[in-house]
Amino acid sequence: MNLKVLIYKARVRGVPVYCCFLLLLYVLYKQFFYPKLKYADYVPKHLQQYVEFNEKFTFPPRELQSAEISELASTIALLNYERTVLHTQKYGTVTSKTNMVVVQVHRDVERLQYLIVSLAQVRDIESVLLVFSHSYYDDRINKLVSSITFCRSMQIFYPYSLQLYPNKFPGIDPDDCVSAAGRRKQFCSSRDGRLTEHKHHWWWKVNFIFNNLDWSDTFKGTVVFLQEDDYVLPDLLHMLRFMTRSQAYLPGLHLLSFGRPHAKGLDFDLLSVSSWHPPFDKGLAFNKSLWQKISAVSSYYCLYDDLSWGYSLLNAFRKFNEGHVDMVATLMPRVLSTSTFPSGRTAMQQIAMWLVGARMFPLNVKAVMLYSSTGRVNAGVKPPPWGNGGWSDLRDHLLCLDPLMSTTTGNTNDMTAPTFSQTTTNATDYITVAQHKMNMSEADLHNVNFN
């Protein structure tokens, strides 16, 4: 059908000719001038080996038998004991000054593969240790992670996952209000193991990283914490150096944040200084010095009735001497979330479009702190007086207060202890630790040495 016929039909139906003309211009622009990105543009050819799962991939539901659970628990305990670091011959051994990037992984392997692709494109990624902390054991996920060759990598496994405890605490207890079938009951514990796992896993993972690795006692590096549905920009480590340096010029900065909702027109060379609060929990980074301070007030994380680890962490920060924790954050996020997109592939395409013409790797960076007539803006962010619920079960409190089972294994760095299995833990020891921390007075907390 030619152009004259289209115009004639449009005029018969009352459509102005100029509308048809504008539509034609739009079609021509989309066809010939609008920038198109091919698959190889956002997944380079040498990284396409990491993209194996399509948007429709899901793990089929399967409940392990008792014997399979026992075998898997032993396997996970052995892997956590060995803590094998790959590719040290190529990139060198890990030292106490090596920075780490830690990824919390569950089952979204389709998005995880694009995170790996983005990490592979980070400049100087070979200088870090990439740690994957899994709450779900599957050979396909493990194979994808173990195929990484662009840096040193290691895998650890959360030992109290729903996969290992499908029908009892800390998984889905049949006596909980929300059973495995999704039905609510009366006179029961109002918890859902499918929701509590994420907060438990985050806390266990951080404890393991700072307390149980071979170099944990003398660790002086920075740890960047990511999720499986994150995507990082190539100048992540470039900005990490600037942000770490800013801590020397601006005393009191303890947290680094690389993530925030994306917006157009944000400066790539600008850092903002303010009190930390969600949603700056994306791409959160800190060192062992801050972790020791957090550990001193761990009960305010573990007893806060909220399923969000971010708001629970904020509640712990209010017990610091300052009443909050200052952070330095990149104004333009270096960690983006793919969870708002239908799939990791869709997110990858959109982010690639956002980055067309982006001015990454700035040579100079400015840090700003906002003030008003009443003083510093955002001088302190307080959490809600009560959490959003879902975390009121005493068993969750006790497990959180002693995530590495140090009451029964002695020194947490003594990896000759039998296993991480909860069944070997004495409940009395648990309660002793919990009571000690829960009964700590306000005066005792303020007297804790945070230096």
UniProtKB/TrEMBL annotation:
Record keywords: Disulfide bond, Glycoprotein, Glycosyltransferase, Golgi apparatus, Manganese, Membrane, Metal-binding, Signal-anchor, Transferase, Transmembrane, Transmembrane helix
Name used for this protein in its record: Alpha-1,6-mannosyl-glycoprotein 2-beta-N-acetylglucosaminyltransferase
Main EC class the enzyme belongs to: transferase
Binding site for Mn(2+): D229
Enzyme Commission designation: 2.4.1.143
PANTHER family: ALPHA-1,6-MANNOSYL-GLYCOPROTEIN 2-BETA-N-ACETYLGLUCOSAMINYLTRANSFERASE, BETA-1,2-N-ACETYLGLUCOSAMINYLTRANSFERASE II
Record gene name: LOC111362581
Pathway the protein acts in: Protein modification; protein glycosylation
Reaction catalyzed: an N(4)-{beta-D-GlcNAc-(1->2)-alpha-D-Man-(1->3)-[alpha-D-Man-(1->6)]-beta-D-Man-(1->4)-beta-D-GlcNAc-(1->4)-beta-D-GlcNAc}-L-asparaginyl-[protein] + UDP-N-acetyl-alpha-D-glucosamine = N(4)-{beta-D-GlcNAc-(1->2)-alpha-D-Man-(1->3)-[beta-D-GlcNAc-(1->2)-alpha-D-Man-(1->6)]-beta-D-Man-(1->4)-beta-D-GlcNAc-(1->4)-beta-D-GlcNAc}-L-asparaginyl-[protein] + UDP + H(+)
Membrane topology according to the record: Single-pass type II membrane protein
GO MF assignments: alpha-1,6-mannosylglycoprotein 2-beta-N-acetylglucosaminyltransferase activity; metal ion binding
